[in-house]
Design brief:
The complex is a heterodimer of chains A (230) and B (215). Chain A is built from 5 helices and 9 strands; from the N terminus they run H-H-E-E-E-E-E-E-H-E-E-E-H-H. Chain A has 230 residues and is of the alpha+beta class. In chain A, strand 4 (102-112) and strand 5 form a beta hairpin. Chain B has one domain. Classes of the chains: A alpha+beta (230), B mainly alpha (215).
C-alpha cells in the first residue's frame, strides 16, 4: 500500500499526500500560534492595563488607583469581571485617591473623525456634573491639522468644565454636548472647535456626547456605591 | 557545485545588490505607508525580517513534504502564522508601537516580498542558506524603509528618531509625513540610484583599465 502510494507520487501527487502536507502545515502553525499566545498573554494584558491607567490618571490627575466597572444596559452598575462584559454595557473607570476616596469617573468615547475613529478619554466629576479632564487615546488624523486636539490650548480649555447635566428625570443629558464654530461658544455644554479642524473637533464632541448619553443616566443614581473603593 | 552560492553570498544578496525596496521594488504597501518616521520604519523592517526569516526557514524545512499543487496555500498558512506571532509579540512589547504600526503588521502577510522569497528561493534551498538569505533580504528591506523614513521624518517633523534637529523655529514640511510624501521620497531615492548607476558605470569603466595598466 505504502509502496504503491509512493510510486504514484512520482507522477501525480496523490490526494493523500496533499491532505498530509496541508495537515502537517496546519498542525505546526496551530502549535506555534497557540504557544505564542500563551507566552505573550500576560505581558500584553499588563501593557493594556498600564496604558488604561495612564490615560485615566491623565484626565483625573488626583487619582492614585482605578477600578473598572460596567454600566449595565438595564440600569445599575457592576464591577467588571475580566473578559465578560454583557452586551450593551458601557465600560467606565472609577478613580480613587490615596485615601480610597472617589476622585471622579473616567470613560472612553469614540466617533468617526476625518481619517479614522478618534478615541478619547474624559474625566467626569459628579459634584459639578461636568467634564474635568480630556485625553486622546488614539487617532489617525492629519498631522499638523487634526492632531491639534492634543495641543491646542483654546480647545483643551473646553474640557476644564464642560457641562454634562442630566435632565430632571435622569433619562438623558439636559443639553447635548455640541461642537460649535471656532469662537462661537456661549454655553457651558458647547465645545469651541479648532479652526481648520472642525471634523476632528466634532468627532471629539460626538464621542463624549454618545458615551455620556449612555453612561450617565445609569451611573448617576448609583454614585453612592462608588464613593469609597470597594 | 558551480552555482551554489556561499553562505556569505546568500546573506548579502538582499542587503544591497538586490535590495527589496530599491532594486526589486517589492512590498511597496508598507514601504510607503508606515515610513513616516525612522523608528516606525525600523520596527516595521525588523518585524518583516522576522516573518521572512522564520517563514523561509520553515518553508525550506518542509520543502520536500509540500507538493507543488498546495504550495501556495501552505506558504500563506506558514507566513500568516509568523505574522500572528509578531502581532502578539509587539502587543506584549509595546502598545504604542502596536498603535503606530496598526493594520500594517497584519498586512505583512500580504507583503509580496515574503511570499516571493518563500516561493522563489526558500522552496529550492536548504534551511541554512534560505534563512541567511531571508535575514539579508529582511535587513535590506529594513535599510530601505529606514532610508525613506529617515528622510520623511527629518523633512516632515524636523526630528530624527525623535530627537529634534532644527530647534523650535523649524516649519515642518507636513506633506512629507502624509501619504504623498512616501512617493516623493521613494521616487527621489530611485532617481538618485539611477543617476549613480549611470555614472558608476562611466567612472568605473575607464579608471579600471588604467589601474590595470598602472598596477
Amino acid at each position: 500500500m505504502t509502496t504503491s502510494d509512493h510510486a504514484m507520487a512520482q507522477d501525480v501527487t496523490s490526494t493523500f499526500s496533499l491532505i498530509r502536507a496541508l495537515g502537517i502545515v496546519s498542525a505546526v502553525c496551530g502549535v506555534i500560534i497557540v504557544g505564542t499566545y500563551q507566552l505573550t498573554l500576560d505581558a500584553a494584558n499588563a501593557n493594556r492595563r498600564i496604558a488604561t491607567e495612564r490615560a485615566v490618571f491623565k484626565v483625573l490627575p488626583a487619582a492614585k488607583s482605578i477600578e473598572e466597572y460596567n454600566a449595565l444596559p438595564g440600569g445599575g452598575i457592576a464591577p467588571a469581571i475580566k473578559g465578560d462584559a454583557p452586551a450593551g454595557a458601557v465600560k467606565f473607570y472609577a478613580a480613587y485617591d490615596a485615601d480610597d476616596k472617589l476622585v471622579g469617573i473616567a470613560a472612553e468615547g469614540a466617533a468617526k473623525g476625518y481619517a479614522d475613529t478618534v478615541r478619547v478619554m474624559f474625566g467626569y466629576k459628579p459634584d459639578c456634573q461636568c467634564v474635568v479632564g480630556f485625553g486622546v487615546v488614539s487617532m489617525r488624523e492629519t498631522p499638523g491639522i487634526g492632531d491639534k486636539i492634543y495641543t491646542d490650548k483654546a480647545f483643551l480649555a473646553n474640557f476644564e468644565a464642560l457641562e454634562l447635566k442630566l435632565n430632571a428625570d435622569l433619562s438623558a443629558l439636559a443639553n447635548e454636548v455640541k461642537v460649535v464654530k471656532h469662537g462661537a461658544k456661549n454655553q457651558p455644554w458647547q465645545i469651541d472647535a479648532i479652526a481648520g479642524a472642525t471634523i476632528t473637533s466634532r468627532a471629539v464632541g460626538k464621542g463624549i456626547n454618545d458615551t455620556a448619553q449612555h453612561l450617565l443616566p445609569k451611573l448617576y443614581p448609583n454614585f453612592e456605591k462608588l464613593k469609597t473603593k470597594s | 557545485m558551480i552555482n551554489v552560492p556561499s553562505n556569505w553570498q546568500e546573506f548579502t544578496e538582499g542587503l544591497w545588490e538586490r535590495n527589496p525596496v530599491f532594486v526589486m521594488v517589492l512590498g511597496m504597501c508598507p514601504t510607503l505607508a508606515v515610513t513616516v518616521s525612522a523608528i516606525n520604519s525600523i520596527s516595521m523592517g525588523l518585524a518583516t525580517t522576522f516573518v521572512l526569516a522564520a517563514s523561509c526557514w520553515l518553508v525550506s524545512v518542509l520543502r520536500h513534504l509540500i507538493p507543488k499543487e498546495v504550495r501556495i496555500a501552505s506558504y500563506i498558512a506558514i507566513i500568516a502564522t509568523f505574522v500572528t506571532v509578531v502581532d502578539y509579540a509587539i502587543q506584549a512589547i509595546s502598545l504604542e508601537m502596536y498603535e503606530a504600526l496598526g493594520a500594517y503588521i497584519q498586512l505583512i502577510v500580504a507583503n509580496c516580498l515574503v511570499l516571493g522569497r518563500a516561493e522563489a528561493h526558500a522552496a529550492k534551498t536548504p534551511p541554512l542558506g534560505a534563512t541567511l538569505n531571508a535575514v539579508g533580504m529582511g535587513l535590506g528591506f529594513t535599510l530601505g524603509l529606514t532610508m525613506i523614513g529617515g528622510v520623511r521624518e527629518i523633512l516632515g517633523s524636523g526630528t530624527l528618531l525623535g530627537v529634534s534637529l532644527f530647534g523650535p523655529n523649524f516649519q515642518p514640511w507636513v506633506v512629507m509625513v502624509l501619504p504623498p510624501g512616501g512617493f516623493f521620497v521613494m521616487g527621489g531615492w530611485l532617481l538618485l540610484f539611477a543617476i549613480w548607476r549611470k555614472y558608476r558605470d562611466k567612472i568605473l569603466s575607464t579608471p579600471e583599465k588604467e589601474s590595470v595598466h598602472g598596477a
